[in-house]
Design a protein that fits this description.
Helices cover about 55% and strands about 5% of the residues. It has about 290 residues and is mainly alpha-helical. It folds into two domains: about 170 residues, no CATH class; about 100 residues, no CATH class. The strands form two sheets. Strands 1-2 form a two-stranded antiparallel ribbon. It has a two-stranded antiparallel ribbon with strand order 3-4.
Length: about 290
């Protein structure tokens, strides 16, 4: 059941595969940011202590410069490094079950990750510094600098509450979306038909078997199952797939039921791979001329 607390969005990938996601709420995102901020500050304190110990006999100016550089790299590259390495998740996002994805349905790129996190300087850190120590950014800052910084922080922090996808400025610039991950809600079509089918033999496929086919083959199989395809054709397609994946068919096995089960399993597998930033257009480079699974 859909609720305001769990808004869902459907994204059609460049390959034409529609995926449904549950959006991360603004307060979930805030919680993730605060946890990540605690990690960053803790790391900064540890670096400061290490530098203080190692540079005990070095000029104070050198210590301050190194500490400022360490803080700059920490706050700017912590998010970028983890989101690139962990497919859109920082330690806090992973803890809370959130993930950054490409808003257009493609693979999350390093450019998008860098852009969305660079905006955090403008969204959070710069106005926060102006609010706390305005003279550090603006020498002889006027009295209205702090109220301006507070308004700046407040407006940008509240922005996710006033757009349907809970986007912050970094998401708008980077073309990204934060969702609950990795659970994807499959479309209620062929996959539901498998669950609603009469009781019979259960089909279970390994990841190795499912990875032999890609998005193109999934679309061809979906087209065959949607159309009024003759049973003889479905049986032949099932036979080819079974041969390819090394499936030992049972006597009088229902070809259509097998194909629907394989479709549901392969679709779930491909959606999982897409969440991890992987794409598989076709089963093999040499099979471009193949028109059936």
């Amino acid at each position: 059941m859909r609720t305001l607390a769990e808004p869902r969005r459907e994204i059609v990938t460049p390959e034409g595969v529609p995926l449904r996601f549950i959006l991360a709420g603004p307060f979930e995102r805030l919680a993730a940011f605060l946890i990540d901020a605690v990690i960053i500050v803790t790391a900064a304190v540890m670096i400061a202590l290490a530098l203080a110990f190692g540079l005990a006999f070095v000029a104070v100016n050198a210590f301050a410069i190194l500490l400022m550089l360490a803080w700059f790299f920490l706050r700017n590259f912590y998010f970028t490094w983890f989101e690139c390495r962990w497919q859109g998740a920082t330690p806090a996002k992973r803890l809370l079950g959130l993930r950054v994805i490409d808003r257009a349905g493609g693979s999350l790129s390093a450019d998008a990750v860098f852009a969305r996190n660079l905006m955090r300087e403008v969204e959070v850190f710069l106005p926060l510094v102006v609010f706390l120590v305005p003279d550090a950014v603006w020498p002889s800052a006027p009295g209205w600098a702090r109220p301006l910084a507070a308004a700046w922080l407040g407006i940008l922090a509240l922005l996710p509450l006033f757009n349907r996808d809970h986007l912050r400025p970094g998401d708008i610039v980077g073309g990204t979306l934060v969702v609950r991950a990795p659970r994807v809600v499959l479309l209620e079509d062929l996959t539901e038909a498998v669950a609603a089918a009469p009781s019979g033999p259960r089909f279970s496929f390994t990841q190795e078997q499912l990875d032999l086919y890609g998005i193109y083959e999934l679309q061809v199989l979906e087209d065959l199952l949607r159309r009024n395809t003759p049973l003889a054709t479905l049986s032949e397609v099932a036979r080819r797939i079974q041969k390819k994946i090394g499936w030992l068919a049972a006597p009088n096995e229902d070809a259509e039921r097998f194909l629907r089960a394989f479709y549901a399993a392969q679709r779930a597998r491909l959606e999982q791979r897409m969440l991890l930033g992987e794409r598989r257009e076709r089963k093999r480079a040499g099979s471009a001329s193949t028109r059936r699974p």
